[in-house]
Amino acid sequence: SKAWHLISRPQGLPTMDNFALRELPDAPLEPDQLRVRNRWLSVDPYMRGRMNDAKSYAASFQIDQPMTGGAIGEVVESRMEGFSPGDMILHMGGWRDGGVVGLDMMPNKLPADALAAGLTPQTFLHNMGLTGGTAWIGLLRVAAAKPGDTIFVSAAAGAVGSAVVQIAKAREMTVIGSAGGAKKCAWVKDLGADAVVDYKAAPVLSGLTQALADLGKPGIDVYFDNVGGEHLDAAFATANDFARFAICGMIDVYNDGKAQEMKYLIRTIPARIRIEGFIYTDQFFDCMEEFYADMGGLIASGAVTMRETVHEGIESVPDAFLGLFAGENMGKMLVRL
Ligand code: NDP
């Protein structure tokens, strides 16, 4: 099997020169190992942070080593108790077409009942996995959003954002989403958003102010941040008293770490805004059963739908990853092998 290796640390936006597709050594399995053929790979914005040599919540990728990430694979050989050939598993041995998976890659069997009920395996990389879980935890637990609240969510046509829009609508919230371009904004509207801000067409603050005026709302109660920068500042400017900000991501600054100008940060004081950053894995295991039951129900009822942007083949993984920063995806960006 082959895996994408990080061969140099990117400065700014990564380029193909930072990556190389190399053969992995073949070896007999040791106890507690599986041999896997991957079917679906996830690419996620957080992986950009792992390409830096800086301390963060996820360990840095090492130079000349294979990269890792979420993947769905089929077991072809097993020396791990509880796993047999043919099992479909979720694990962290991504960026490769297959190979050896040990306990460090956290293999988990996909629930047979969910697959039998028609959920596709790759759903466990998005709405029933990292991105759906992040949306659900951030909106309902971190921001404690409740029916009647007015929610603003950035990158609303992305994987996390599109789940936030739909979960919020299912809970009777008023939702304003922002996305880049008319096509994405039309889709966010189709998902049920009450208003959409096209941040590429006009400054975020003017779009958000207009959307609130059109909806007859005084301001936002919750901001779900995927972007940072100008979006975050517009949220400060329009926050109602006691607004809650769930800081999920700041993709606007992942590549260049540019300074963020917050003209309206001071509103945190008079509006008594609560701002909380969160990491999915910190909270997921506490609420996993509740999440699966609730999200499973929302998917089954059609309240939460799924859209995928799919690249084909192991060669396309870096392109798919880089596409996240160019906004090439609607819904979840995936690679099918
Ligand atoms: P998305 O599917 O949302 O893909 C990224 C999207 O971000 C693009 O499609 C693009 O949409 C938008 N974007 C890219 N660059 C910019 C920019 N400079 N300004 C504004 N928008 C931009 O990715 P995910 O759903 O996987 O992730 C969304 C966010 O959630 C990320 O910030 C990620 O890091 C974070 N995250 C955090 C987790 C946590 O535990 N805290 C877990 C998982 C994700 P457009 O065309 O609209 O610009």
TrEMBL record:
**Which Pfam families does the entry link to?**
ADH_N_2 (PF16884), ADH_zinc_N (PF00107)
Q: What is the top-level taxon of the source organism? A: Bacteria
Is Disulfide bond set as a keyword in this record?
no
One of the record's GO molecular function terms:
oxidoreductase activity, acting on the CH-CH group of donors, NAD or NADP as acceptor
Signal peptide limits: none
Domain Enoyl reductase (ER) intervals = 14-335
Keyword set for this entry? Answer: Oxidoreductase
Q: Which SMART domains does this UniProt record tie to the protein?
A: PKS_ER
Q: InterPro entries of this UniProt entry?
A: ADH-like_C (IPR013149), ADH_N_2 (IPR041694), ER (IPR020843), GroES-like_sf (IPR011032), MDR_fam (IPR045010), NAD(P)-bd_dom_sf (IPR036291)
* Name of protein: NADP-dependent oxidoreductase
Lineage, broadest ranks? Bacteria, Pseudomonadati, Pseudomonadota, Alphaproteobacteria, Sphingomonadales
